[in-house]
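Aim 2 progress. For FeS assembly SUF system protein, the working sequence is reproduced below.
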Amino acid sequence: MADEPRGIDLRPLDDPPHGAEDLRERVVEALRSVYDPEIPVNIYDLGLIYRLDIDSEGKVVIDMTLTAPGCPVAQTFPCTVECAVKAVEGVKDARVELVWDPPWSRDRMSEAALLQLGML
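Predicted structure tokens for this construct:
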């Protein structure tokens, strides 16, 4: 994709089954439907998704961060993301891990997010 958030680890599957790329695109669209509670941009384009792995059985593992460690939704937001991903057709299970390393910075934002916030 032309406008991926910088630094995201979207490693392809070793031998993706038929439809794996389509599933990945649907998961990314689900992530783009979830917005940061303090910034009016979706979590994918903000660069909050650090890793997105999808195995051949439709199990999704996501490492994500927040814009600040003291974020008031730190305890509940991963569940919100998990629910959005689990609702995607073809996803059998999803697990979201909150990580803090490396710390998030605006350098991780996509060009679209920078434009949307008037930072470009």
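Confidence is low (pLDDT under 50) at residues 10-16. This observation will guide construct design in the next reporting period.
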